[in-house]
């Protein structure tokens, strides 16, 4: 009787301890598998040469590229030429084919010294390839890293190139890349009367799309003139989601010179329409904010200088600016919120002693047009009126919700 009782207790104890151990083991295995899935390296469209190289062989090819267009660590043009692709023309966007021109500088046509291929600027006299240029190619390849913001001009270049392809019955092969701000879908929708070179499309400030997804939206929503459609083939990114943390292997423009600036750019570029410097003329652009008249209100300071290839005539040049240092700001806070940060804008407007000059673009030729950057006059008027952050955000909601529904139709990634 006692033996049976003891065996029963022993067996129960064995089962009791085996159960949780097996469960923990299974959980650990599951967690390990999940971790393996999370850490799988992102593979860009350009890196997936097996998916498109044979498609390019035997064709006369044009490429729209800049310094971010790489296969591995090698410029895409150099790689494709070495692999036997017949590249006839190179087209470069703002900042040029090699990415060395300053913000807003017109870029001249040239010949690429390494390959001898003509390099044509799409940020000078031309906005899109000409009929004659398109006649010399069979296919156009587009491979440029974007940062997911309406006023970053590479999406404009994409639209112009799609228009040229549609007009000339040429296919566009788009090698997709991750959007480092792919989680950010926020901000006011561009209003029609504020259409400009820093706002071509009726989208929010942060659109949360890759270039491939954006190209699909341009086609699907009839955004080209006369609602033309471009023949489009997209080489997708592997192992990417819109929530993926993605560090750019090559920085996209001279003033987005750190990963921190890439992540802060959607939130700080609005300051280009104000009297507040965003750090142009320093080696920490889009990581700091300040102005001379904020002396005494902030202890942090910096002094913009003329820097060739970055900012040669920056706002407040050779003046000490006082303000906010965001170089160590935890950008994961933005990722978690998924929202455009307008708190800094409200704070600095309140702190600035000459409020009538805060948005006055006549104060300096370096200042942009705030309303065109914002895509609406409402944001400026709301800040002047002292509206709260929540009140401002609420005014965006109808347009933003409509865009989020529309956006779903064109997503290539979860």
Characterise this structure.
Helix content is 32%, strand content 13%. The radius of gyration is 26 Å and the shape is globular. β5 (110-111) and β6 (118-121) form a beta hairpin. The protein is of the alpha/beta class and 414 residues long. It has helices at residues 2-38, 53-56, 76-82, 131-135, 154-167, 211-220, 259-268, 332-337, 343-351, 370-374, 378-384, 389-408, and strands at 60-65, 70-71, 74-75, 86-92, 110-111, 118-121, 139-143, 171-175, 185-186, 206-207, 232-235, 288-291, 300-302, 321-325. The strands form four sheets. A seven-stranded mixed beta sheet has the order 5-6-4-1-7-8-11, sandwiched between helices. A three-stranded antiparallel beta sheet has the order 12-14-13, with no helix packed on it. It has a two-stranded antiparallel ribbon with strand order 2-3. The termini are far apart. Residues 1-27 and 29-37 have low confidence and may be disordered. The chain has twelve helices and 14 strands. It has two domains: 49-235, 3-Layer(aba) Sandwich (Rossmann fold), CATH 3.40.50.12170; 259-376, Aspartate Aminotransferase, domain 1 (Alpha-Beta Complex).
Unreliable stretches: 1-27, 29-37
Q: Helix fraction?
A: 25-40%
The CATH homology group name of the largest domain: Uncharacterised protein PF07075, DUF1343
Q: Number of helical runs?
A: 12
Tell me the major beta sheet: 7 strands, mixed
* First and last CA, distance: 62 Å
By DSSP, the count of extended strands is: 14
Structural class: alpha/beta
Averaged pLDDT: 89
